[in-house]
Design a protein that fits this description.
Blueprint lengths: L3 H35 L1 H12 E6 L6 E2 L5 E13 L8 H10 L4 H10 L6 E7 L1 H9 L5 E10 L7 H4 L1 E2 L5 E3 H5 L1 H4 L4 E7 L5 E9 L7 E2 L4 H17 L4 E8 L5 E7 L12 H4 L2 H4 L9 H11 L7 E3 L4 E4 L2 E4 L6 E3 H7 L2 H10 L4 H8 L26 H8 L8 H12 L3 E2 L14 E2 L3 H12 L19 E11 L2 E15 L6 E8 L8 H4 L1 H14 L11 H8 L3
Parallel strand pairs: 2-10
Antiparallel strand pairs: 1-8, 2-3, 3-4, 3-5, 6-7, 8-9, 11-12, 11-21, 13-16, 14-15, 17-18, 19-20, 20-21
Length: 570
């Protein structure tokens, strides 16, 4: 009996252990079957939800280039720092290091995370430098990751700032060409699936759900060489004459392309801290001014169109002033008897007024409308204004007289350049374009060809000895142009000490290739006349531009050959 009990006890122990083993094994097998067979799909989904994430793949914006392929705006890759608030769990030291790298405070980061606690994605800093992004990644803070994005960079800085414009932090166009062609330049973002570890760090790229589609490149009509040249000379003139602002535009006569457009003051679009509305607007298309005597060539066009006058018709401007109702029209000097070319050369307000009052009342207005005053150029540039020219204003003699020498209407620098391009193109009006035109642009004839040629010839005398713009002359080239010195209109009427100095011209004069208009606002130095302030800018820029474009000289040397040449002119 005593021997039997120990054997029975041992057997029961063995059976108990075996039974427990069988039960446990059965449970484990059943659990494994449940996990790997019955609930496999559910558990994989739940696991992926905790480790797989879908992140955007940012598409870069299209590049903007000048007409020769020189980059004017490019997108460079950068990293942005972001966090998942549910996983964000740095220790004190990590938080302090992160705040230091992001140039903020630990408290600011904590408040941002707390305010977005219900989100899965919060930017901590956009567009960080590569060095800083790498140091942030090295901290291995749970819930903090990097996202590859693109930032717009403008290689030429302030030189092209007003035309190219800029983008915002999300790389969407905000001003200038960047805004007007935003849909063309902007890419379409993609998406990718990544695997993350428990710290929220990306450990594996799983697949691409949607391929990013980059934006399309854009080729502008601008010539980088001419833009730099115009910018340098305009800035120099604004500083030298202590002016408030200035703008200049160069157009290609045959295509209507904008080859250069510059403004002062300027800003650097790569430095957003430098931004202000006053410095960022493109004054060449937004700022209006009365063009003054630069419209006198169109007064001559209207007079010739009327059939009442010939180029050699003489107008008596003596004694240097002319009473029109309550208005006294004055010239700088008593020029006596002048033909139509003399009226342009001496810039006679009296002569222009007498012509305007002698022709049908609506004729001068119609000429102005045909050359684009009072309407937008149609360039498509954001913020471009149409100018002011209300037909009802020009029914009385006083308004007709002042219109003849450029008061009572307002234009932009681009509008003035476009009007002169019509004179340069033998009366053909072409669309203004900021895009490269691969083929010739036909345009529409709006002025008589012979009349425009006659007026261009008269305008050559403005730049010759005895004219108002001798400083616009260019050695080796014949230049046709016209000055304007305009009193600025203020709350109490026209100012006696605030002016706009204007010059518009073309070269070579008989077969013009380029047209340029310059307006410099409120020069406060000793000089303020258009021939003193704006004309030299034209000469320096146009001389360089003609050489860069290999335009051959056309000026005939003085002597018998020149006299014979002039005798054959219109």
């Amino acid at each position: 009996m005593k021997d039997y009990l120990p054997q029975a006890t041992g057997r029961w122990r063995y059976l108990t252990v075996w039974l427990v083993f069988v039960v446990v094994s059965t449970v484990l097998v059943a659990r494994a079957f449940e996990l790997h067979v019955l609930n496999k799909k559910f558990l994989q989904t739940q696991g992926d939800a905790r480790s797989l994430r879908t992140l955007p793949l940012t598409a870069h914006r299209g590049m903007i280039t000048d007409r020769h392929g020189e980059p004017l705006a490019v997108s460079t890759p950068v990293d942005s720092v972001w966090a998942n608030p549910a996983q964000f769990d740095p220790n004190k030291k990590q938080l302090q290091e992160l705040a230091k790298l992001l140039e903020t405070t630990p408290r600011a980061i904590q408040e941002l995370i707390a305010a977005r606690a219900d989100k899965e994605f919060v930017y901590l800093k956009r567009h960080d430098t590569p060095e800083t992004a790498q140091r942030v990644s090295a901290l291995q803070i749970p819930g903090v990751s990097l996202l590859r994005e693109y930032r717009r960079y403008y290689p030429d800085g302030e030189v092209f700032a007003h035309v190219i414009g800029m983008t915002n932090v999300d790389d969407n166009g905000q001003e200038g060409i960047e805004l007007s062609y935003d849909s063309w330049l902007r890419g379409t973002n993609g998406a990718q699936t990544v695997m993350k570890d428990r710290l929220g760090q990306i450990i594996k790229d799983v697949d691409i759900k949607k391929q990013p589609r980059p934006g399309k490149d854009l080729v502008l009509s601008l010539d980088r060489r001419l833009q730099y040249l115009a910018y340098r000379e305009l800035k120099s003139a604004v500083l030298a004459n202590k002016a408030k602002s200035g703008s200049a535009v160069i157009l290609d006569v045959d295509s209507g392309e904008v080859l250069a457009m510059v403004n002062q003051p300027a800003l650097n679009p790569n430095n957003r801290d430098d931004y202000s509305s006053a410095r960022s607007r493109n004054r060449a298309v937004t700022d209006l001014f009365e063009p003054g005597s630069t419209v006198k060539p169109f007064t001559i066009v209207a007079a010739l169109e009327s059939g009442q006058f010939k180029p050699n018709t003489v107008i008596d401007t003596e004694p240097g002033y002319y009473q029109v109702g309550r208005l006294t029209v004055r010239d700088v000097h008593d020029y006596g008897r002048l033909d139509l070319g003399g009226i342009i050369q001496k810039s006679s307000n009296v002569g222009a007024s007498k012509l305007s009052l002698a022709i049908p009342p609506q004729l001068l207005l119609q000429v102005h409308q045909r050359v684009g005053f009072g309407v937008s150029t149609g360039s498509g540039f954001p913020g471009e204004v149409a100018g002011e020219m209300v037909a009802a204003r020009y029914t009385h003699p006083i308004e007709r007289a002042t219109l003849s020498y450029g008061y009572g209407l307002s234009v932009t620098t681009l509008q003035l350049a476009r009007a002169y391009s019509i004179l340069a193109a033998d009366g053909v009006r072409r669309p203004v374009s900021f895009l490269l035109q691969p083929t010739a642009v036909a345009g529409e004839a709006v002025l008589d060809k012979k009349i425009t040629q006659q007026v261009r010839y008269m305008m050559e005398s403005v730049v010759a000895e005895g004219g108002t713009a001798i400083k616009a002359s260019i050695p080796g080239y014949l230049v046709a142009g016209k000055t304007g010195t305009v009193k600025k209109l203020g709350p109490e009427g026209y100012s006696d000490d605030k002016y706009v100095a204007v010059f518009a011209g073309m070269a070579p004069a008989q077969q013009p290739r380029l047209v340029m208009a310059i307006a410099i606002h409120e020069p406060s130095g000793k000089a303020y006349y258009g021939g003193q302030v704006a004309a030299p800018v034209f000469a320096r820029v146009m001389a360089g531009a003609l050489r860069l474009l290999d335009v051959p000289p056309d000026e005939i040397p003085k002597g018998k050959a020149q006299l014979a040449y002039l005798a054959e002119r219109p």
